Amino acid sequence: MTDTILKSHSPVNLTPKDFKSDQEVRWCPGCGDHGVLNSVQKAMAAMNIPKEKFAVISGIGCSSRFPYYMDTYGFHTIHGRAAAVASGVKSANPDLEIIQVSGDGDALAIGGNHFIHAIRRNIDMTILLFNNEIYGLTKGQYSPTSKQGMVTKTSPFGTIEQPFQPAELALGAQSKFYARSIDTNIKLTTELILAGAKHKGTSIIEVLQNCVIYNDGAHTLITDKETKDDFQLILHHGERMIFGKNRNKGLVLGGNGKLIVVTIGEFGITEQDILVHDAHNPDPHMAWLLSNMSAPEYPVALGVIRDVAALSYEEKMVQQIKDVQAVSSIKCMDDLLNSGDTWEVK
């Protein structure tokens, strides 16, 4: 995957260091954002396209400092509006490779409207959704993804709100590409960014990220070295959904339409009984089941969950302009200014 030249630009020889700006990175020591920054810089270097063809666009939040740390074009926008600005940038210049950076609060609360409509329109950009289940920059309020009952500064007796499942929200908005990683797995995150950039349309990459100050350990069950193998299912298209420390657990579909965790070798279960992942299935049902799995009942699905081909907004926009121009007598601005009733001022 990393050897692929994603766009038609002439190959360039860049390294991750070429994408590092001269700005001091001011995230807390141990913050998961450091790992994601590393992954983005590695992925950009692997794309083999010039730096001026990238634009990193963010909203407001800890993760939204991202443009300052990238030696590319960037835009630090306003709260919740990163998707709207990124949509405009991509529509105005479809040749740019857009990476939009947003947190769970920025994207799913004040920015929720722009988030779902960017997905619905299928704007060709990659959205990195940092999910630490808390508001970090504003010092520890519960967010749209905070678990019910979580005690924070704005929920001193525990939040009574039902949290969003980001993948469920994206799939409801007709997402064609959804992937998930964790901040500690730089290799996987890099691969997913490359896959998202290769996909034509809106690519959502949810990164389960740890806030060491206000929600430390939110994803411990799937990141701790003692338990992660039993609670991570890294999906690969065309491969069986097998996981576990001993690679002996897998998923089957029950008669009630629900996923069931089984152990290979028990009750006659063989490897051939384990489901094969089909990321390209246009029916979103399996993607919905996989993305909604949570520990400890299930492993958490990582990797590319859904990757379905569809025309992007820009492709349809460019084609529509060509179609209109083909039958119109007005081909350019001069034609427009000289059409209809005109007069000459002397």
Automatic annotation (TrEMBL):
Report if keyword Oxidoreductase is assigned.
yes
Pfam families associated with the record: TPP_enzyme_C
Q: Lineage of this protein's species?
A: Bacteria, Pseudomonadati, Bacteroidota, Bacteroidia, Marinilabiliales
Q: Which InterPro entries match?
A: 2-oxoacid:Fd_oxidoreductase, THDP-binding, TPP_enzyme_TPP-bd
The Thiamine pyrophosphate enzyme TPP-binding domain extends over 60-207
User: This protein's superkingdom?
Assistant: Bacteria
What one GO molecular function would you report for this record? thiamine pyrophosphate binding
What protein name does the entry list?
Answer: 2-oxoacid:ferredoxin oxidoreductase subunit beta
This protein's UniProt keywords:
Oxidoreductase
Q: Does the keyword Oxidoreductase apply?
A: yes
Q: Which GO terms describe its biological process?
A: cellular respiration; small molecule metabolic process
